[in-house]
Amino acid sequence: MATTLDKVQVVTVGVGWTGGIIAAELAKQGIQVVGLERGQNRSTEDFQMIHDEYRYAIRLDLMQDASRETLTFRNNRDERALPIRQWGSFLPGEGVGGAGVHWNGQTWRFLPYDLQIKSMTDEKYGENKLGSEYTLQDWGITYEELEPYFYRYEETTGISGEDNPMGAPRSNDYPTPPMKSTPILDRFKEAASNLGLHPFQMPSANLSENYENPDGQQINACQYCGFCERFGCEYGAKSSPNVTVIPTAQQTGNFELRTDADVVEVIKEGGRATGVRYIDLKSGEEFIQPADVVVMTSYVLNNTRLLLQSGLGEPYDPETGTGVIGKNYCYQILPGANGYFEEEKFNTFMGAGALGATVDDYNGDNFDHSDLDFIHGGSMSITQTGRRPIANNPVPKDTPSWGAEFKAKSLHYFNRALSISAQGASMPHRDNYLDLDPTYTDVHGNPLLRLNYDFTEQDRKLHEYLSDRAAEIMKEMGANIVEKASMPEHYDIVPYQTTHNTGGVIMGADPETSAVNNYLQMWDHDNVFVVGASAFAHNGGYNPTGTVGALAYRAAEGIKEFLDTGGQLVKAPQKTETV
C-alpha cells in the first residue's frame, strides 16, 4: 500500500531544464516545490574524469535505462510495433539535469513564422499548400508575446552569440560575446558570403567567458575540449540545470529534490489532479505525493506516456483525427553534404558542442516557397564539436567497409573531412503520433509508449532541396569530393539522428485541437501544467532547448497566477493600445 505524504503546493515530475526553471522561479517567490527525479543526482564534480568516449558516447552512461523502460516503434499502423532494446535514433537522458547535462548547448529561438505557421502559410501560399493529411496548426501564441521569456532563459544561461540577420528579432544583445571562430568556421563563412548568404556565429551555451547570471550562479568559460554531447562538463562551462536553476531553487529553502523517484501515475478526482504516485527505486516503496499543482517536466516521450497512462486528456485517434494526447509527434530530418579535402588538414579533434557557424537563409519562410512543393526549411551549419576516434570514421561513399583501402582512407580523411548539416523542420502528419502499446510493458507492468512514425513527402522534398544548398556551399569551400546526404526510404530507429523529438501534448488556442493553452496548462485538468517540447505543434529548423526554456518561464508565471487566484484557467493579459 502506498504511503501518503504531506501535501505540497507544487510537485514536478522530472528535474531537468523545465523542472529546474519551474522550481527556481516558484521557490524564489516562497512557493513550496517538490521535484521528483527517477535518476541519480549529479554535479560538476561527477564529471572530473569525463573524457571516456566508450562509457559516455558509446555505452550511453547518462541515458535512460532501456532495460527498465523503453518504447516500441513501427512505421505505420499495419505493422506490429516492437520494443527498442538499445537507444539509437535518439537518446533520452536520465538523472538530475536530464538532457540538459549531455546536450551540445546550441541554443536558438524559434522563428515568428514557426509560432503562427498555419495562418502565415495560408495567407501567403493559400490553404492547399500542404495536403489535408498534414495537421498543421498555430501555437496559440505570437513571437512578440514569447520574446521576453526567450531572453530570460538566455540571461539565466549566459548564452554566447551574435546577431543573426535572418533570425527572430531581438530586444537585447546576447549576455556574452560569441565563441572563438576557427579556420574551419571562417572557411564556411567566406564561402557562404561568396554565395550571397548571411553567415554568423552559432549561439552557444558553452560560454565564451566567465559569467554570473542574475540569480548569482557562476558559469565558467569554455575550454574547447571537445567533450560536450553525451558528456557532462567537467569545467562547469556548459550551461546546464545543475549549475544554474537547480542550485537557485535549492538555495531558497523552498525546494526539495527527491531522486530515485519514478512517477507512475497522476492521481485525479473530479476533473483535477490531486497529486502523483511514485515508486522509490531503491526501496521499492510506493508513495503518494499530494499537491495543489502537478507539473509534468519530464522528457517529451515521458510527458505524453504518463498522461495517457493516467487517463488525462483525450487520446489522439488517427482514424478520426479527434483527441489531442499523442497528436503531432514530430522529429527532424538531417540534410547536408560532406566534403573531402586532399591536401589541407583541419584540427577537427578540437572544439565544443556549440562551436559553429550558421546560415538561416533557408530556414522558415526566409526564402520564397511559391514554386516549391514543401514549406519551411532549416538552419544550415558547420560545427566543430570535437571529432572523437571511436565514433567517427569519415570516408567517401565508394570506400570498402574493410581491408587495406578502408584503413588507408580512414587515416587519410580523418582530419581532411568536413560536414555541413541542416536541421530540417518536421511538419505534423496525421499518421505520426504517440499512443500506448497494447502488448509490451515496463518493469512496473505499465504499458510502454508506442511511436508511430515515418518520413513524409514533405520531408523528402525538403531534404533534397537543403542537401543541394549544402553541397553548393561545400563546393565553394574547395572540397575535392562533395557528397550530398541521402535519405532512406523509411525512418528507422537506428542509427543516431537527433534527440529533437517534439509534440504529443501540443499547445494552442482551441481545446478541440490542443492539449494545453499558451501557459502550458491543460484545458481539461487546469491544475496540471505540461512543460517541454511536447507542447510544440510542429518541429522547427533549430535545436528546441531555447524555445523550451522560454515556454518554461512563461509556464512558471502561469502557475504562480493560478495559485494566486485560487485556481482557474490562466489567460493572457489583455493588450492595451497606447494613445
Automatic annotation (TrEMBL):
InterPro entries found in the cross-reference section: FAD/NAD-bd_sf, GMC_OxRdtase_N, GMC_OxRtase_C
Highest taxon above the source species: Bacteria
Classification via Gene3D superfamilies: FAD/NAD(P)-binding domain
Domain named Glucose-methanol-choline oxidoreductase C-terminal: residues: 428-552
Keywords linked to the UniProt accession: FAD, Flavoprotein, Oxidoreductase
Glucose-methanol-choline oxidoreductase N-terminal domain sequence ranges: 217-329
Matches recorded under SUPFAM superfamilies: FAD-linked reductases, C-terminal domain, FAD/NAD(P)-binding domain
Renumbered residue ranges of the record's region Disordered: 158-177
Family: Belongs to the GMC oxidoreductase family.
PANTHER family: LONG-CHAIN-ALCOHOL OXIDASE
Protein name: GMC family oxidoreductase
Phylogenetic placement of the source organism: Bacteria, Bacillati, Bacillota, Bacilli, Bacillales
